[in-house]
Design brief:
The complex is a heterodimer of chains A (253) and B (201).
Chain A lengths: L4 E9 L2 E5 L5 E5 L1 H10 L5 E5 L2 H4 L5 H10 L4 E4 L5 H10 L3 E4 L1 H5 L2 H10 L4 E9 L5 E5 L4 E2 L4 H10 L4 E6 L11 H8 L6 E4 L5 H9 L5 E4 L1 H4 L14 H8 L1
Parallel strand pairs in A: 1-4, 1-12, 4-5, 5-6, 6-7, 7-10, 10-11, 11-12
Antiparallel strand pairs in A: 1-2, 2-3, 7-8, 8-9
Helix pairs in contact in A: 1-3, 9-11
Chain B lengths: L1 E4 L6 H10 L4 E4 L2 H5 L3 E4 L5 H10 L3 H10 L4 E4 L1 H5 L17 E5 L10 E6 L1 E2 L14 E6 L1 E5 L5 E7 L1 E9 L2 E4 L7 H12 L2
Parallel strand pairs in B: 1-2, 1-3, 3-4, 4-12
Antiparallel strand pairs in B: 5-9, 6-8, 7-10, 10-11, 11-12
The chains are: A alpha/beta (253), B alpha/beta (201).
Chain lengths: 253, 201
């Protein structure tokens, strides 16, 4: 049987690793390559790197850094941030990443999903959907690192990107990101119930119990962890860590 | 020295990278002359079956690969789509496969709540002894990404099984021809062990 994938989601900002809170205030975590070496030793299932400045600042992915990361990694790798064309994606695949995550670019140009899926296969294309709840608590999709409002409904958008060929959906609850308050189960459940591709739940994880409930109750196929794997505890210092395989098996088995 | 066949389909750098990490020399080449001289070959592959078969022909590699596999009988390891190409046909396409091993590639059945592609880490079971999987570490698990799977006609050619709704052949071998459905280059020490075994054949 397939193991539920538990994926550290690591945020790059000007080639350093950081961790944000609600896509805003950030803490410096460390050097990406050193951190990756630790995750490699911990035998994590998969790693996902998200450059939080590339879309916002309109810069290119940091290809050289990504190549250094790929040299250290013996697990599947995903990259998102500033991927705007099939050429960008191809360069990332050649470096040794298996998947690209696209978010802002596909909001402007949804046909990019199809183009990527046809060129590289759906399994290589993650549609990354950042969602924020408004004052009425209605969730809507945001672009450009949370800054741009689109008014789109996350469930409808998830269905559209699936139809267009996305192989996975990385669903991030901006209001929960970096807050240690648990996943947005209602959001994850609404999206996971509407699509048949795997949904990776991201934003809010604080404990193994949170992981268990988002998988069992909300139907997430995988989870992405941020704060939990780079900090000791809430409001404490940096400590790169990952739940032990036996603990995960107890939680998810 | 292992030669990784470059025909424009797949993640070759990762394979070389893992081989380098375990101290095995490898080159990436799509040159028929270099492949003609190879001691061992890895046939990688990510993408669609027909496109891959067409690329092998377009790159002028079909003849030299057939000779290496069937006449010189050098060890050849197909990875992921590269394993499926070893079979005679695939339900994904209409072109014939390399047909070096009596096996067919078929589509995962849809429905019954099984997600396709089969993507993620899964356990494998050894079903026939093979030097490729000898002395595998306890709890071996591998990273898979595929929507089609291989079934060998002769069960003695199946060396590893895995399950995802159905039980399929995750590893096959007929003499010098070997294939694995998963990505050893992305499977931590479990993959290193397997590639190390292949390198020492």
């Amino acid at each position: 049987m397939l193991r539920t994938r538990v994926i550290p989601a690591l945020l790059l900002r000007n080639e350093s690793l950081v961790k944000t809170r609600r896509f805003g205030r950030f803490t410096y975590v460390g050097d990406p390559c050193n951190t990756v070496r630790i995750f490699n030793e911990l035998e994590v299932d998969e790693l996902c790197f998200l450059d939080i400045m590339a879309s916002r600042a309109g810069t290119r992915p940091a290809f050289e850094l990504l190549a250094d990361i790929a040299d250290e990694c013996f697990m599947p790798l995903a990259y998102g941030g500033g991927v705007r064309s099939a050429e960008d994606a191809e360069r990332i695949f050649k470096i040794g990443f298996e998947k690209v995550a696209v978010s802002s670019a596909i909001l402007e140009k949804p046909e990019l999903v199809t183009q990527l899926a046809e060129s590289f296969g759906s399994q290589a294309v993650i549609a990354s959907i950042d969602v924020k709840r408004g004052v009425t608590r209605r969730p809507t999709v945001r672009g450009s690192g949370g800054r741009r409002r689109t008014g789109r409904d996350p469930v409808e958008w998830a269905k559209e990107v699936e139809d267009r060929g996305a192989g996975e959906i990385l669903l991030t609850a901006i209001d929960r990101e970096g807050t240690w308050t648990g996943f947005d189960l209602e959001l994850v459940s609404s999206v996971a119930g509407a699509v048949s591709v795997p949904v990776i739940a991201h934003g809010g994880a604080a404990s193994l119990a949170d992981i268990q409930s988002v998988v069992r109750k909300a139907g997430a196929s995988a989870v992405a962890l941020g704060s939990m794997v780079v900090f000791q505890k809430k409001d404490m210092g940096v400590l790169v860590n990952f739940p032990a395989p036996a603990e995960l098996e107890m939680t998810l088995g | 020295m292992i030669t990784i066949v470059d025909y424009g389909m797949g993640n070759l750098g990762s394979i070389r990278n893992m081989l380098r990490r375990i101290g095995v020399d490898a080159i990436i080449s799509g040159d028929p002359l270099a492949i003609a001289d190879a001691e061992k070959l890895i046939l990688p592959g990510v993408g669609a079956f027909d496109k891959a078969m067409a690329r092998l022909s377009d790159c002028g590699l079909r003849g030299v690969l057939d000779r290496k596999a069937l006449t010189d009988k050098v060890p050849i390891l197909g990875i992921c789509l590269g394993m499926q190409l070893l079979t005679r046909s695939s339900e994904e396409g209409v072109l014939p496969g390399l047909g070096w091993i009596e096996a067919a590639t078929v589509r995962f059945p849809r429905g019954n709540g099984i997600k396709v592609p089969h993507m993620g880490w899964n356990a494998v079971t050894a079903v026939t002894e093979s030097p490729l999987v000898a002395d595998a570490p306890d709890g071996s698990r591998f990273y898979f990404v595929h929507s089609y799977y291989v079934l060998a006609d002769d069960r003695r050619h199946a060396i590893l099984n895995a399950s995802h709704g159905v039980t399929f052949d995750a590893g096959i071998q007929a003499d010098n021809i070997m294939g694995v459905q998963f990505h050893p280059e992305k499977s931590h020490r479990f993959g290193k062990h397997l590639l190390g075994n292949f390198a020492s054949l």
